[in-house]
Every structure is written in C-alpha cells, then in structure tokens.
Amino acid sequence: MCGIVGYLGKKEKKEILLDGLQELEYRGYDSAGIAIIEGDKLYNFKAIGKLKNLREKTKAYESEGFGISIGHTRWATHGKPTELNAHPHLGAYSYVVHNGIIENYQEIKEELQADGVNFLSQTDTETIVHLFEKNNKYENSAFAAFEKTIQRLRGAYATLLITESAPDTIFFAKNGSPMLIGFNGDDIYFASSDTPIIGKATEVYYLEDGEYGYAKEGEVKLFDGQGKKNFTKQALTTDKISAQKDGYRFFMEKEIYEQNHVMSETMMGRVLDNSIEFNELDANFFDGISAIKICACGTSYHSALTSAYLFERIAKVRCDVEIASEFRYKEPLLTDDTLFITISQSGETADTLEALKMAKRAGLKSLSICNVDNSSIVRESDAAILTRAGIEKGVASTKAFATQTMVLWMLALYVGQKQKTISDEILKREIDAMLQTPKVLIVTEKLHAKLYRLSKRYLHGHGFFFIGRDIFFPLALEGALKLKEISYLHAEGYPAGEMKHGPIALADSELFTIALMPKSMHYDKIKSNVEELSARDATILAISPKPFELADDFIQTAYDSHPMLEFFEMMVVTQLFALEISIRLGNDVDMPRNLAKSVTVE
Asked: pTM score, two decimals?
C-alpha cells in the first residue's frame, strides 16, 4: 500500500527519494511524487503509473546542498490515480505526504472550504496541509501549528510535512500507520518501513502511536501526549527481504495480520453511519437490473458464492455464480436485465476476462471488483470497485479474499438501498456489524500460539473435510483451498448437510474434519452433522464460540452477534491453520509449487 520516504541533509535528495520509493514498490502503488525545499526554493514532481515515469519527469533536476525532502507512492483510496490526487499535496507554501485514513476529513474539509480554501484533489490527505496553513496564521511557530493540526485529526495516519515557513525542518506524526526515523551522522531519514533506508541509515527509531515531532539540523525532537520525550535508537537490519516482511516469516503471514488494517481502507468513505455509498457508481447504475450473475475463479469464486447468499437474503435480488472457465463454454443464456459482475485480485485472470467480454458482446451492463486499478478487467468493465487490499505477494490469497467479500457485502446493502428492498433497521444492523469487522480480524498472540501447537497433530492422515452451512460453506471451500495450495495435503470443502450423501463413507480416525460452527446461524443443524462424523470416529477440530464436547480439538471464537463477524473471525483461523501446517512441513508458503499469482492463461 502507500509508501513514505523523507530525507534531511546535504546529500543529493532526488536519488535518495526515488531509490527509497523503489524499495517500496512491493507494497503496490499507482502514482508517485516528491517535494524538496533547498534554501528558498521549493520543487515538486508527480507522475501517475510506475516510478520510471517520475524518474523521467525529474531527470533534468538535481538537488545540491542542505535541504529537506519528502516522497510518496500512492495506492488510490480517495479519488482516482491522477497527478492531482498523487502526493505530496500542496497548500499555499507547504507540502504533505500521508498514509492511512483521516476519518473526520470531510468535516475539516467543509470548514476549510467555508473559509475560502480551494481543494485540488479528492483525497483526505489534502485537508492536513490546508489545516496546517490555517493554524500557522495564528500560532507563533510552524511546530505549534503542526501540533495543533495533528490534535484535530481522527483516524490512522503517518505523515510528513514540509513548509517554506520553516525551510530547514521536517515535521512528522504517527498514529496507527507505521513510520520510522533513520540516522547516519547528521543525515536523517524517514520511511514507512525499513527497506528504503537500509544501506543509508545505520540506526533507527520506530515511532509509537501518538508520537510526533520535528527534525532539524541533524537532530530530532520527539513528543507525545505528555510532552517532550527521550528515545533510544537501535541498529538497523541489513536484510531487505526480511525488512519487507516486517518481521514476519512469510509474506502470507504478514498479509493475514494486516487484514484488519486493509479492511478499514476497503470501507473508508463507503460505509457511512446510515448508508453505503460507492462514488464509483452512478446513481442510476442499477436501474433496470433484476438479476446478478457473478463470474470468478479460485478464491474470488468463493467470495462470489458467499455474496450470493447476501444478495438474495438482504437485497432480494436473484444472484447466480459461475466458474469463469466453465461459463465460457456452456452457451449461457444472458438477458439485458442482468448485471454481470467479475471478481479478480489481479484484474488479469484470463478466464474471467474472456467471460466479461462474452457478457459485453451480449449487451449486459458490467461491474468489476478488483484490487488493481487500470488492469484489463477494470478497463473492460462499465464500472469498477477497487478492494484497496494493497499488493498481495503471497500466492495463496488472504487479504484479497477478505476485502472482496467485504465489497460484495457492502454492494448487497447498496443494492438493497437502491431497490428499496431493505429496511432501515436491517441496514443499520448490517452497518454496525461491518464497522466491527476490522476488530474481528485482529490476530491475537494467544490464537496464533494455539494454532501453532495444534498444527503438529494434522500433518498426516488421508485428508481433510472443511464443512459449513450457508455462507460458511463457501468459507469451508476457501479454507480447504488454502490448505491444499500451501501444504499439498488433500482437502475438500463441503456443505455440512451433504456429508451423509456419500462423503461420510470416508470417515475414520485418519479423516480430519474442520467444522465451522457459528452460533448465529444454523448451529443445531451443523452440530448434528458433526455428531454424525464423530460417531464414525472422524477427528474433529471445531471452530465455534460454543464449546463442543465431541471435538478432539476446539478453537473458541469471540464474536457471535452477526454471521459475517463469525465468518471473518473463522476465516482468520483457517488461514493461520493452513499457514502453520505448511511451515511445519517445510514448504515455501509464499511460492507454492505449480502455482502463479496471476493466472493469465486458460
């Protein structure tokens, strides 16, 4: 996701910024920019697309002497990828870069607009620089104005600000989004992760939430809610790949842990107090639509299956789900009252793209749900909703599945609003549950430790059945797929009520059954299904908020007030379960054999 770099010192700044941003490419981005102040001169360059475009724009520029500088790679959230929406954002005489979410930006923006401030971008970030400049009119120092500014901000943010009113100083603040400071003599570096400063800085300080301050003339002053504070530097690692993983063993593990953060970005600006809004969709987008058909592959297909329950239950609109590779050859019946939705993490999935082209030739309105703006599927669709998951390096998808499912849940509510098939009471209940989802996705040390211990008991046997009912059936499919992909053990997802129609013949002590047993949905029914397997000596791992006396192993979940909260909490359990089994088997979790991240052939 978005990346930040900063540098204060006498070295050539353009290359430090560009090289640092290059090291953050693994996080994903769609635009980039830098701003530099040297003496009384302020320079600013932005470009959409890859860093080579920014390098081309800056090739005639070279900095010299002491100066301050900031840079940013942006993954679009508020507003499309354009130069105006790219960071750094400009006020009258200041620049800012920012990662995270300013939750009260709309309130601040309206106040500033009432004061006559003209906004150039659609971003929440631009409010920071204009609010700073407003405060700077009345405060006795630029730092006092910056301090007053960050006290007003609500949400998660890491930010750097430079201003012509203090041309030798970089102001910084951190709350919820990562930020660190690097040191090498009088040179001071800032970054959102270690990799941009490895080989440049020798020591580092990792900012804590609520800390802020300024860097000036080779020194850093640090503050928190209690005032000025001292800090201790530590040696900086020299391993860039390890640094990219932020201390995690694998990218997949890191991506499981960051699901709670990316889910907030997925919902940002879309989930409001009493409604769901998609700025990407015209107000009349669903006019004339009486059915939905979704095409996808693999993990995206499982998120689509989950949403079919939600579209029909919540929005009261018929929803059919197709595997894209099968849809292409079945000579499907397509009518123009059907919205055709495609789902793809990369936006380049060949089968899904060809299915979309078929639907367009048949005259259907199309919508894509994707993680990559300007990808083939996004360009081909009439409209697109980005999941905002950030780049996913692990081949086995985790956070992409989570954010796809959330977008589809939001879309079901949005359709219900537009078609007036959902009551205000149900809408409020669903939104209240949505807003709890990031909390549900937090991985606790206790949970991960338990799954690590359990995993050693599930390395052998003749296979796994993941079973669930309703929306937990697609989750069972996804849990089985995760295990297959990275452990190379045979696993199947099955509707729990179907076990007695054949598969129960496999039940014995060497058959591992992963039972998804939500309290809020069909608990007694699935309990009965699991009891049938237990009676035939299957080994049972039950995942549920309610203890199950016949389980050989039990993972107790915490959230039981809404089926989707149980869904997302159980999703994390199945992801960690697959991860720990694969690690014990000595597999390359991030690059499982025979698989590719983007499947661009049929």
From this structure: 0.74
